[in-house]
Amino acid sequence: MFDPGTALSRNLGPSLRRWRVLNRVKQQALADELGVSQSKISRWESGTSEPEGLDRSKVERLLLARPDSAADRALVELVSSNSTPVHLVCDLSHRLLAVSPARAQDWHAGVKELMDRPLWPYASEGIRTAEQSLGVKGWFEPHAPDIVFSTERADFPEMTIPESRIRITRLALSDGRFARLVRDDTARLA
């Protein structure tokens, strides 16, 4: 079974570096904050090593998407008021950040029950397969392309995933963390 943490492992260094640069934090300052050496931060960013245990938990908390700025809150509001099926999740944890009423119609659980919870347990096989291929499709590059894929219907007590084509877009929030915009794709697959 695919582990969504694998995506973090492939993307940890570039994500950490991007967050640090966008927030104008020097490696040494981040190292001091996390209680590690500057050389360890450098190795994480270059991909020559990965944080483990408590260090990994600290880095994951640091990189979890939190739409805190006015611009990010406007994005959440646009998604929440959209008339088409769309939702926004943390790219790292798949935690629900916003959902449109049209998307929520397929959900049996209330939006409040699912908000801030990872949606990964409800992923169809098509979604899991697409997730595994993100790296080779350039998802973790600085200017990531949209990814379009098909998914089969999947029924869960909390929600139904309809058979559809999905388009995902990786969006950098104002603080350098990433969110994923998930919407139905009505264009033809290329």
Describe this structure in words.
The chain has 190 residues and is of the alpha+beta class. Helix content is 38%, strand content 18%. The protein is built from 8 helices and 7 strands; from the N terminus they run H-H-H-H-H-E-E-H-H-H-E-E-E-E-E. It has helices spanning 5-22, 27-34, 38-46, 53-63, 70-80, 101-104, 111-114, 125-132; strands at residues 86-90, 96-99, 147-151, 154-155, 160-161, 164-172, 178-184. The strands form 2 sheets. A 5-stranded antiparallel beta sheet has the order 2-1-7-6-3. It has a two-stranded antiparallel sheet with strand order 4-5. The longest helix has 18 residues, at 5-22. The radius of gyration is 17 Å and the shape is globular. The mean pLDDT is 87.
Distance between the termini: 28 Å
Name the poorly predicted regions: none
Q: What's the number of extended β-strand segments?
A: 7
Return the structural class.
Answer: alpha+beta
What portion of the residues fall into strands of 2 or more residues?
15-25%
Please compute the radius of gyration using only Cα atoms: 17 Å
In round numbers, the mean pLDDT is 87
Helical percentage: 25-40%
Q: How many DSSP helices?
A: 8
What string, H for helix and E for strand, traces the elements in order?
HHHHHEEHHHEEEEE
Overall spatial form? globular
Q: Which strand order do you get reading across the main beta sheet?
A: 2-1-7-6-3
Main beta-sheet annotation: 5 strands, antiparallel
